[in-house]
Amino acid sequence: xxxxxxxxxxxxxxxxxxxxxxxxxxxxxxxxxxxxxxxxxxxxxxxx
Length: 48
Description:
- 83% of the residues lie in helices and 0% in strands.
- It is mostly helical.
- The protein has one domain (2-46).
- Helix 1 runs antiparallel to helix 2.
């Protein structure tokens, strides 16, 4: 389960990076970044 959360967070960060440089998704990309950070923090808090 934790590896799945890590994978989702990684995908969201990659999408954020692509959107940040392409400016194609506008404000939605920042929501993806926030979701990625929350996923990483959730994984850190729960432990391995």
